[in-house]
Design goal:
Layout lengths: L1 H8 L14 H10 L6 H9 L3 H6 L3 H13 L6 H10 L11 E3 H12 L7 H11 L20 E3 H8 L9 H4 L13 E6 L16 H8 L4 E7 L13 E2 L9 E2 H14 L6 E7 L3 H15 L25 E5 L20 H7 L7 H7 L3 H5 L1 E5 L5 H6 L4 E6 H9 L3 H10 L1 E5 L13 H5 L4 E4 L6 H9 L8 E3 L15 E12 L15 E11 L2 E8 L16 E6 L6 E8 L7 E9 L6 E6 L15 E11 L5
Parallel strand pairs: 3-12, 4-7, 7-8, 8-9, 9-10, 10-11, 11-12
Antiparallel strand pairs: 1-2, 3-13, 4-5, 5-6, 14-17, 14-21, 15-16, 15-18, 18-19, 20-21
Helix pairs in contact: 1-5, 7-8, 11-12, 12-13
């Protein structure tokens, strides 16, 4: 709260006289900015209750923090934290007085072990937590005694609340969120890989700008498979060399040089040399002279960062992410001989459902174009993943592991509904599949990745320029494992055991309250928000996506400390290893479309039980500026059950 107040307190638009204090009028502006509405008469009454010396001079920074904390503290009679405190530890202490503090022993036994279902936690761990909590600067408006002398033995109610809302108590299991290098030695086929579609675009698919910066944006957001649609460009008049360009072919999107993108990725690798492999998904429309330049630019710019597979490495299982650390890997065409009808020459990303229905094969590229162009040997030999057309799973499984398929979202739905869909999972145990949005999504909206993930597809490519619900699902999935972009798939997708079925569960969520919720896009100006929470479970059952959603009521004019604490929402989870719960905060607007505030997407496999905080992220998946402290407090209960019960 101190930092939150500091950002607004120090703003020069509020403190016009440079006195480092604020009066009642300026305090009203701060309250509006942090989304806490008070009538002028109410605020004036509260302000006039302060000491006369304070009223004359104005509130200092520390006094402003105390005032704001008191506003929250005065709602303790209805505040969920107050109820949790007394329910867990009892209203009265042994001496008959109302409980003001709790011991480390009670905190461990009654809260962490019994309520939170924590494991591997001991009394010494609790004492370290208490020592840290008691160092926090919390305005002392409730507690009658300081606990400095025994800071590792007790905490009071204010510091208990601070723990509940802390990152240490987050609903996302920190053990799952931390990077685990020990799990990075499996074949690439055993991972979900954070992937982007038409990475260069800043907007729609028809007329938006293409930008090199979008590659940096995607990479820093955790993406590790980027797409480049490469076409013949001009010829350099001075050097006489072809200039390959990247853009969305046959549209009005702008064009950028292929080499500029390679330069940008090299810069990223220079600052992040331990990055796990970055896969270039090349949609190659170039003639041979331009392909030769592409190969030369890749080799010259990337140097040792470019992975060039040998014939021996193409045999057997695919390499691991650990073995390819700091490398760029190419996905494109590596034909053993002349291109034939089984090759997928361009990964052309056409909507291939109609092709499947009419011919029994899926072609994701233009064969005639590729046959006329061919593939430059220099480019082919540095390519690892070779795209091929799909006939049937029996044929595909027998292909070398570096052969792979690419399917549009419509084909993903079609294939997952077929009776032999289990073969697709079997294929994805050893080979890769990339999926991409339908060509009908000209607005660059995204499809849900759930069905593709549940079939073991590794590279589920999304439009990173569109901050919609599917992209937020993707952010939640790849928050695991340190955000490195590679998540080991669950054993149901990596083992041959046909009798191994998805684990189901029943999930109960109660939204208790929020804290420090900003205005839409972190804006400073505007009216106080009316926040509500939308809870959506994205799941998969029998090859189809299942989505269940609930919405809380909205709280009027309070994003600072809104309280819901009403209904419990129950979800039947069919595939707990894949399912994701998304909690999104919206601003209710009765006159127009509701505005997105922030969200958090949590895989069920990474979720912790008990009273948990939910750190909220903005549309760019960051927690900076106005979103530093945005969070929810929820109660989580999970009960595993047999699939037949659902």
């Amino acid at each position: 709260m101190l930092l939150l107040c500091s950002n607004d307190f120090s703003n020069s638009t509020l403190i016009q006289d440079k006195s480092n204090t604020i009066d009642c009028k300026e305090l009203q502006k701060i309250l509006t900015r942090i989304n806490f509405y008070m009538k002028k008469s109410q605020l004036k009454d509260a302000y006039h209750k302060l000491d006369e010396s304070i009223r004359k001079k104005g509130l200092s920074f520390e006094q402003c923090c105390t005032f704001l904390h008191k506003l929250k503290h005065d709602t303790w009679q209805t505040k969920p934290v107050n109820q949790i405190w007394f329910d867990l530890f009892g209203r009265f202490m042994n001496n008959g007085t109302e409980r003001q503090k709790v011991s480390a022993e009670s905190f461990l036994r009654k809260f962490l072990l019994k309520q939170q279902k924590e494991k591997d936690v001991e009394l010494e761990d609790v004492r370290q937590i208490f020592a840290h909590l008691n160092q926090l600067e919390i305005a002392n408006v409730a507690s009658s005694k300081a606990l400095n002398s025994d800071s590792h033995m007790y905490i009071d109610k204010d510091h208990f609340e601070a723990y509940l809302m802390s990152a240490e108590n987050d609903v996302f299991d920190p053990k799952k969120e931390r990077f685990d290098q020990n799990c990075m030695t499996h074949s690439l086929s055993e991972y979900w890989i954070n992937s982007s579609h038409n990475t260069y675009l800043t907007g729609d698919q028809l007329a938006s700008q293409s930008s090199v910066e979008m590659y940096m944006y995607a990479l820093y957001r955790g993406c590790r498979c980027v797409e480049l649609d490469v076409w013949d460009g001009d010829v350099d008049t001075d050097l006489g060399l072809p200039i390959p360009i990247v853009y969305h072919g046959h549209t009005m999107t702008t064009k950028i040089p292929f080499s500029d993108i390679i330069d940008a990725v090299k810069v990223f690798l220079s600052f992040n040399p331990e990055s796990y492999p970055i896969i270039f998904s090349l949609e190659n429309h170039c003639s041979i002279p331009f392909q030769e330049v592409m190969a030369e630019q890749l080799l010259t710019i990337l140097g040792d960062h470019l992975y060039t597979p040998s014939e021996s490495t193409l045999k057997g299982a695919l390499p691991s992410p650990e073995s390819l650390r700091g490398m760029v890997v190419l996905k494109g065409r590596r034909p053993a001989g002349p291109i034939n009808e089984e090759d997928n020459p361009e990964d052309g990303e056409i909507d291939d459902e109609e092709s499947l229905l009419h011919t029994g094969e899926i072609s994701t590229g233009n064969v005639d174009t590729a046959v006329s162009h061919g593939v430059a040997p220099e480019l082919a030999t540095m390519t690892l993943f070779h795209g091929t057309n799909f006939k049937n799973w029996d044929t595909s499984i027998e292909k070398p592991t570096y052969h792979m398929h690419s399917f549009s979202e419509s084909t993903v739905r079609s294939l997952s509904k077929q009776t032999n869909s289990r073969q697709w999972i079997e294929y994805n145990r050893t080979h890769l599949t990339r999926t991409f949005p339908s060509g009908k999504r000209v607005d660059s909206s995204n499809y849900s990745p759930m069905v593709a993930w549940s079939n073991g597809c590794q590279m589920v490519a999304l439009n990173f320029q569109t901050p919609d619900s599917p992209l937020r699902i993707n952010d939640g999935r790849f928050r695991e494992n340190g955000g490195c972009g590679y998540i080991l798939k669950p054993c149901t997708l990596t083992t041959k055991d046909e009798f191994l079925k998805p684990v189901s569960s029943r999930l109960s969520i109660k939204v208790l309250n929020g804290s420090c919720l900003p205005k839409p896009k972190g804006q400073r100006r505007g009216e106080c928000i009316d926040p509500y929470v939308k809870l959506s479970l994205y799941d998969e059952k029998e090859g189809k996506e299942v989505c269940t959603s609930y919405t809380t009521n909205y709280v009027v004019d309070n994003g600072f400390s809104p309280i819901w604490n009403q209904d419990k929402y129950t979800f039947d989870v069919c595939n707990a290893a894949v399912a994701i719960l998304q909690l999104a905060v919206w601003d209710k607007d009765i006159h127009s479309k509701d505005n997105f505030i922030a969200s958090s997407s949590v895989p069920i496999s990474c979720m912790r039980q008990g009273f948990r905080s939910v750190r909220l992220f903005d549309s760019n998946n960051t927690r900076s500026g106005a979103f530093d402290f945005a969070s929810l407090l929820i109660e989580v209960k999970i009960k595993q059950q047999m699939l037949e019960e659902i």
